[in-house]
Fold:
Amino acid sequence: MFKATSVFALVAVLGVAGCDNIDTDGERALIGAGVGAAGSAALGGDDRDTVAAALGGAAAGALADDIGLVRRSR
Structure:
């Protein structure tokens, strides 16, 4: 079950993944994973929560344009 730190990290990732200057899904996934892991670790999450936050951040970053958080670059 997710702890509050993982949920907080995921919310932070959604904000970062929404940057319009990031062009591809892969770049947004990489940034989302990094921010998710860093946020969870900084808030004292254990290893399992940090991995879950990284996976959630990667998914959020990769799907940011599909769910309407960013405009698809052309």
